[in-house]
């Protein structure tokens, strides 16, 4: 009988062991399913998030590129401040514009300086946007060299003019002047007389006129002097020196420089 009871107890222990093993396996399976499922969801979420970020970034980059292209295609509305300070004729804010450098030189010579039916040479290019135009009162008269330049608004402007018979030391181009205007330099002319006029840019009526006296011979002679003029209190303009010659006393040759007027902002 003792042997039978002992065999029964052994059988019960075996069944209990098997049952415990089954329970343990079941717990492990449940844990694997739970944590394994979360990892899969996280991966899926991670993948989805990555795709959304990449799509958004691509869209923003495309939009930026289009905006940049539009900006670079813009056309300048006018001349720069630096360009404006170098202009004698015409006024960049006025109604007169020139598409041709010879026309710009002619407008300056006839409208501003006062040449009468002068002769014009070809454009002598300095570079693709600048050059010189020769102007003569008569065929065998002295040459006035008009300096022209095409600015950022694509129009042509006159920066001034030079001639062998008048060398202007003061004022220099870009100087701010006040009343009275102080002048110095060297010149030769009939009886040594060199006419002086101060113009507001774009205007053909002078703000003031006078003269200085250089040499009446073939050699250049020094001159100094002052000319009274009406200062508008700011803005830009030009100082023009010219001589008269020929049988009719017409404008013979001319020098000019751009200037500013003291009193502006």
TrEMBL record:
Residues 45-75 have a biased composition (Low complexity). The chain crosses the membrane at residues 14-36. Residues 166-249 form the Bacterial spore germination immunoglobulin-like domain. Keywords: Membrane, Transmembrane, Transmembrane helix. Pfam families: Gmad2. Residues 42-86 are annotated as: Disordered. This is Bacterial spore germination immunoglobulin-like domain-containing protein. It comes from Actinomarinicola tropica.
């Amino acid at each position: 009988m003792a042997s039978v009871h002992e065999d029964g107890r052994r059988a019960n222990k075996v069944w209990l062991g098997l049952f415990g093993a089954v329970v343990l396996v079941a717990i492990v399976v449940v844990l694997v399913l739970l944590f394994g499922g979360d990892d899969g969801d996280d991966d899926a979420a991670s993948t989805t998030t990555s795709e959304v970020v990449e799509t958004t970034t691509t869209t923003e980059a495309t939009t930026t590129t289009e905006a940049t292209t539009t900006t670079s295609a813009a056309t300048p509305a006018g001349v720069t401040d630096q360009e404006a300070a170098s202009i004698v004729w015409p006024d960049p804010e006025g109604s007169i514009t020139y598409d041709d450098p010879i026309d710009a030189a002619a407008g300056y010579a006839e409208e501003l300086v006062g040449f009468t039916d002068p002769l014009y040479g070809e454009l002598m290019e300095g570079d693709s946007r600048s050059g010189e135009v020769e102007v003569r009162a008569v065929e065998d008269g002295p040459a006035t060299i008009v300096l022209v330049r095409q600015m950022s608004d694509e129009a042509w402007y006159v920066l001034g003019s030079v001639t062998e018979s008048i060398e202007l030391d003061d004022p220099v181009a870009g100087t701010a002047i006040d009343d009275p205007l102080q002048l110095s330099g060297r010149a030769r002319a009939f009886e040594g007389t060199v006419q002086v006029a101060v113009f507001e840019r774009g205007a053909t009526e002078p703000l003031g006129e006078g003269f200085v006296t250089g040499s009446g011979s073939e050699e250049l002679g020094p001159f100094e002097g002052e000319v009274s003029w009406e200062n508008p209190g700011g803005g830009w303009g030009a100082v023009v020196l010219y001589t008269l010659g020929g049988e009719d006393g017409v404008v013979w040759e001319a020098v000019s420089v751009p200037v500013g007027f003291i009193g502006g902002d």
